[in-house]
Amino acid sequence: MQPNSSQAGGKGECAYDVVIVGAGFAGLYMLHRLRALGCSARVFEAGGDVGGTWYWNRYPGARCDVESVQYSYQFDAALQQDWNWSERYAAQPELLSYARHVADRFDLRRDIQFNCRVTAASFDAALGRWRIEADDGSRASARFCIMATGCLSAPNLPAFEGEMTFKGDRYHTGYWPHQGVDFSGKRVAIIGTGSSAVQSIPIIARQAEHLYVFQRTPNYAVPAHNAPLDPGYLKQVKADYPALRQRAKQTMTGIDFDYSEQKALETSPQERRREYQRRWDHGGLWFLGAYQDLMVEQEANDTAAEFVRGKIRDKVANPEIAGLLAPTNTIGCKRLCVDIGYYETFNRPNVTLIDVSAQPIEAITPRGVRARGAEFAVDAIVFATGFDAMTGALLRIDIRGRNGLALKQKWSEGPRSYLGIAVAGFPNLFTITGPGSPSVLTNMLPTIEQHVEWIADLIGFMRARRLEVIEAEGGAEDEWVAHVGELAGRTLRYTCGSWYLGVNIPGKPRVFMPYIGGFPKYVERCNEVAANGYQGFVATGAAPAT
Ligand code: N01
By CB distance 3.0 to 4.6 Å, which of 39, 269, 370, 412 could disulfide with 34? Predict the structure, then answer.
């Protein structure tokens, strides 16, 4: 469909039915669905290609922690059958190839504008349309604005004194050079020990002359046991795909896992150990599915945590270093890491662990990093310091709803949304996997598909009734925010300083952002809302509903 430049646009402004911000997995599928509805749509993407997370996160070792056969679209059976994953956990290049394949296969690129970062979006109440501005001077207007900006896409760059004086190279894992980085013969510092660091440290350590790891909080990691995918297994999965996807939709995380109904505290220590070992040998996030009370009872959680600490002690030769690497907080409170040789890396003579838990990094100097009263001279610093999660990518855009209300102001005490999809005061704006939705606690691909299909259905519903503007009601939003908060308060995920709570960003309100009630309950609620004529929304338009 061609955009209509006369519809409502000012000079040089193209008008569309829908503008989508972001061409990651969410934006790509949203565009595909909107085309099927006959909508004109334009995607604005800051990167030079599709792929989102997998376009930007090119650090060594970047790969998915959900098994590839499940971390994939299911909306198109032929795509699902045609694509062949090569490894149990796909690495970044393969995930990026997959995103590119999808873009080409469904001819999506012609409606995507690359290298174009959206900086502002404001709702014009008189026209009932959004006006969108980008950093390359592009201007557009659209009836609907859909934020497909990702949950972990706004890099966190903590302010370190003297950072700009450093004479060597600086990298952020979430903003990695496309040509790659060769650390051979270099002295390297890495700051942070979250998932990105856990994946990259073993590889950087093999290249670098010396690697200094600055750890503020140790993290739990379970082995990936990554391996090439056996063609026989892949064939079996493909034959079973419809059933596998159905099973996955019934689980809390949207992943087809074997979740136990047993409770750790009702199981003998010997049996528990056998079960933890079985899951450890299997590998991956499945470990936390061992018992249903692991994330609600601290005593139960302690049994799993102690099992992993024992593994760390077994793997790391120096007991003092093993002690520093062993976390003491709740396992699964921060995102569990899935590793390939992480702990063993600290047995290498060219790796030094520097504990900055009690004394923060003092400064970056022209020669390196100063901490614990010493200067560590390096040629490069890798900031594996994570993201301003869930709200960061949205709030870095100046989004204004009715009466010029800034989203930043509305969310000054934490994000408020209805279903994690819509925000009262911001009509016709939708957020895919926004705060208040299960998103980061689930397999992102099925979660994205569910949101995209729900939003597309809503737009289809409006078009069929010639409705123009729809907005979440304040009361429905209040009720949802309270529900999300109430559920979060019941779990142990509240007990540590994680990015789920925004604690990693100075000044960010401490609010547990994702919906923790599980994928099935969430989908049920969304379906109920739709079945009841989009209950909790108010719609207006040119013609009465038919
Ligand atoms: O970021 P993080 P990430 N001084 O926030 C430290 C997904 N992901 O990019 O814990 C010193 O987890 C910080 O310390 P602390 C996944 O969901 C998935 O690694 O705040 N240290 C922490 O150690 C993941 O959870 C995969 O005390 C500082 C680290 O930096 C999410 O993305 C791979 C500091 C940041 O860890 C984010 O992971 C990668 C300071 N001033 C990412 N500031 C998969 O496997 C921060 N830190 C799919």
Answer: 39
